[in-house]
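<given_protein>
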Amino acid sequence: MGQPVNVGVVGCGAISAQYFQTIDRLPELRLVAVADLDLDRAREAVRPYAGVDVLSVAELLADARIDIVLNLTIPAAHAEIALQAIAAGKDVYCEKPLAATAEEAAGMLRAAGAAQVRVGCAPDTVLGTGTQTARKAIDDGLIGRPIAATATMMTPGHERWHPNPDFYYVPGGGPLLDMGPYYVTSLVTLLGPVASVVGAASRTRAKRTIGSGPRQGEEIPVTVDTHVTGVLVHTSGALSTLVMSFDGAATKAPNIEVHGETGSLVVPDPNYFDGSVLVSGVGEGDWRTLPVAAGYVEAGRGVGLADFASTPVGEEPRTSGSLAFHVLDVMESLLASAHSGAAVTITSTCERPPPVNLTQPVDQR
């Protein structure tokens, strides 16, 4: 008790820097070792952090010091690395999505259950003050019974800024699998699990051109849908309309709106931890900003890992594998509906994660 949880990280790509910064400032976590197929990249990634070992993947998974493996590999490798970590008897926390397919993710959870280890998964942005303040407003009855929501993400595509965007345009990527976890996880946090979906999708072009970095100008193939839309029917009866696109220039639509019988909420961008929550009641006309009332204050990527690590054994973590699996199942079913033209019943479910009370940042080490 009182000792930090030792973390080993597999994958030192672009997102790893944000995790390393958060781990470094949270006393309940300790970064012990990292691994990457490119050892030079791994060394450069942890250069600011003294005492962190750079190992091969096999060495890291075999390291008896490590309690949790933080899996920051590309989506296509999530299941492979997670299964190896589970076989080594270690808890696993994955970057989103949980796996490239729901079938792979189900195999991970079965293996974890058999090995009596835990699986957690991003996104953890829903634990910040933005989504949690909105959730508290809903739970407190501020807008009455929720009846509908809209969630919109519209961008021309990540190849404009990412130097190696290939994985965004292969299975496990696309706007839905890449950005959808933020939005669907937020919708489940706000409104509860999903019972069925109906969707439609399109793909505007077969190739994309890299816009930055050493590969600038190179064309990469597109093998996934790049505009996905649909309706999620929550078990509560609320209906969420979802639009996820790599084909739009811009949008003025709120990232998420929730509409209740007596009012409506504007929920901040679920890709971030904070942001203003706006409310307007029936007949009010104007929007007013709610005070911050719940969530981790000044959170960064990795706060969900700390929340996961500190959840007592036997309790469901807020960033649980079952939540991530349900979100992946919803997204995969939405794509299946888009291709079949028929509504799809969601066979999985999950508990609505417990709320986060307003929690001030801890002192840095």
Observations:
- The chain has two domains: 5-121, 125-294+326-345.
